[in-house]
Amino acid sequence: MNKQLQKLIESIEPVSQEKISKTTLYLDTLTKPPGSLGKLEDIAIQLAGITNQEAPQVSPPGILVFAADHGIVEEGVSAFPQEVTVQMIRNFLDGGAAINVFARQIGAELQVVDVGAADEVEDKRLVSKKIAAGTRNFLKTDAMTEEQMEAAVLAGTESAEAMIARGIKCLILGEMGIGNTTAASALVSVLAGCSVDQAVGYGTGISNEVKQHKRNVIEEAVKRRNPDNSAPLDVLKKLGGYEIAAITGAILAAAKVKIPVILDGFICTSGAIVASRLNEHVKDYLFAGHVSQEQGHQFALEDIGLEPLLELGLKLGEGTGAALAFPMLEAAVRMRNEMATFDKAGVTNK
Ligand SMILES: O=C(O)c1ccc[n+]([C@@H]2O[C@H](COP(=O)([O-])O)[C@@H](O)[C@H]2O)c1
Ligand SMILES: Cc1cc2nc[nH]c2cc1C
To answer: What does the record give as the active site (predicted)?
Structure first.
């Protein structure tokens, strides 16, 4: 394995049990019946553990949207044509996509990173870390070479490190890539141990007939590629995508420096499964923003052991569900940091 990547994986430490215990006790001194803020309390406790701070901050948040194309679209597995990936990249840069709206709403910096779009987008606002013009068709050959897979993971790492260096306190992840639900379904079926049938969904809106075809393509491809399910990077290289690999790398980078990560939908979570397999502590740095309509998402979340913060029937991607969940993290830290204690407010405790 690439030395830099190996070092990164080994550098991730467990979250702080001391801060978790301290915060658990402290929350019961605040002016509310114990446990009355429910999951918000769990979030505050987890954030203290992640950041190793008694008074954690999650603002400002930053959003990374990784974009890439997929050779597997040749098999007719998406409702939309491949050119939509670069068209949406332009839309992100012009501020007109859903994620732009939600980024503005939460005051987040939004960066779009091309890690493998099929065409060129000449625009200074786009971060170009293109590994190749789309993956290869994984029904016919491995999606990526080992070098390409590692370069894509490290492109995600670098993107996250740069954002963290600019001062973001919470990393929100998203993706764009026509065909990427097929890659994510293949990954999840191998790594999460669910059937291809359970991992496959409607993506951007295919018919039942096309969904059946998508299932058959994935089943055949997994058989042919024969990935080693105890080697997550082998599975990623054979079946994944550049944006999925970049998401894996971004998660590792954030966990290394104790920055919380909010995952978006199914594709994002598939990258998180890979990261979680590389280091057992990674999962404790992750929040699942929502559970998507894509049916494999629930299996993917269960595999990591994550409970979604929201269930809104979304199936868009881009980081939208993660950005929408961010205010829950902000509320949790404000609760921890701003509420009065029983003592201070002169309220009688039981
Ligand atoms: O986030 C999700 O759970 C999600 C579910 C379905 C579709 N998407 C988005 O739709 C695209 C992939 O869909 P498809 O049908 O082309 O594989 C890609 O750009 C994703 O961001 C995203
Ligand atoms: C229009 C469109 C927008 C998207 N955003 C993320 N995936 C997408 C797929 C399509 C087709």
So the answer is: 318
